[in-house]
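User: As part of a screening pipeline, I want to sanity-check one entry by hand. Below is the sequence and the SMILES for adenosine-5'-triphosphate. Please return the complex as structure tokens so I can compare it with the automated output.
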Amino acid sequence: MTPDREAILQALEQVIDPELRKPVTELDMVREVTVDGGHVAVTIALTVAGCPLRSSFEEQVGRALGEVPGVKEVSLSFDVMTPEERERLTTRLRGGVTQRDKGISLDASTRVVAVASGKGGVGKSTVTVNLAAALAQLGQQVGVLDADVYGHSIPHLLGISQRPVLVDRMIVPPVKHDLKLMSIGFFLDDNGPVMWRGPMLHRALEQFLSDVHWGELDTLVVDMPPGTGDVSISLGQLLPRAEVLVVTTPQPLAQEVASRAAVMAQKTNMRLLGVVENMSGDVFGSGGGEALAAQLEVPLLGRIPLDPRLRECGDAGEPAVLAVPRSPGAAAIAAVTEEVVARRPGSISKALPVLG
Ligand SMILES: Nc1ncnc2c1ncn2[C@@H]1O[C@H](COP(=O)(O)OP(=O)(O)OP(=O)(O)O)[C@@H](O)[C@H]1O
Ligand SMILES: [Mg+2]
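Assistant: Here is the complex for your manual check:
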């Protein structure tokens, strides 16, 4: 007798992809079934060439089809999915949401606070980690995204050396001090300089953001790369709801920094939240934060004094707001955090007086 084609297809439902843990029939991996007398030939399309699961498929197909009446001989060959087939597959695995639709895998209710500056070395990363840690201390679920592809110092500042784990194609961020961290530095070899071009970086950012399993976050704090370059614009597209917090030094260079920050916010469609003056003290002059806030017509959210403990804690991988909460630097950042919380979009709060 000639085996029944329907029976063969039904038997193939028992063949499970060992990684995706679903039947090959459901995953559209069965490409061809030919029946020639008692000889059945099956072709299975693998997700990637050189997939190490061939022997498992061979064993399973042999066993499943061996039970179908009339089957005397089974041959199995492999093919590889086209990129379109792969995309259909991952879409299906994600529950019908395509990657492009999905964008960044953040909850709609997650607030995104992007920490930016007009120039380097003003304490952007220090503010990022301490703001994030202070928000977590207030009971929020907080993620930190180190998007400063040129600096990526956040893993060091949080004392995180382990890399993210891949589970079923989801990137699971490492956690420290109750903060989930994702850094592009995790995906670069050693500490070599980043020389990717804009479009490549955009795709990399998009992919690693959409595949990151953030879970339910209240706030994502982003350490932005300097300037208005490709990366900032990409992030603006990927994180359209972001609010920008501009860190500046006390030198009254307001005009220049202000125009840069304004251009950045405009180019990236982000809303300016306010200004934080860092390294306040006499050495660097004063009034920079105030002048910048006035120029941008946003509030000055606070002044963080020069405090060696902010640097020491950073070097030790421990946010100062956790390690030495009473130090002047940490206390100032805690106060800034309260201002940030009070200015949550849509929150019912009276207009707070501008500090300073
Ligand atoms: N208020 C402060 N008091 C003392 N040291 C500070 C203060 N803020 C930041 N620092 C120190 O200044 C240095 C630069 O800070 P940080 O790395 O946070 O700046 P950044 O703007 O992220 O720099 P980059 O542009 O290199 O990414 C660090 O050594 C940090 O510990
Ligand atoms: Mg930095």
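Points to compare against the pipeline: Confidence is low (pLDDT under 50) at residues 348-352. Residues 1 and 125 are 73 Å apart (CA to CA).
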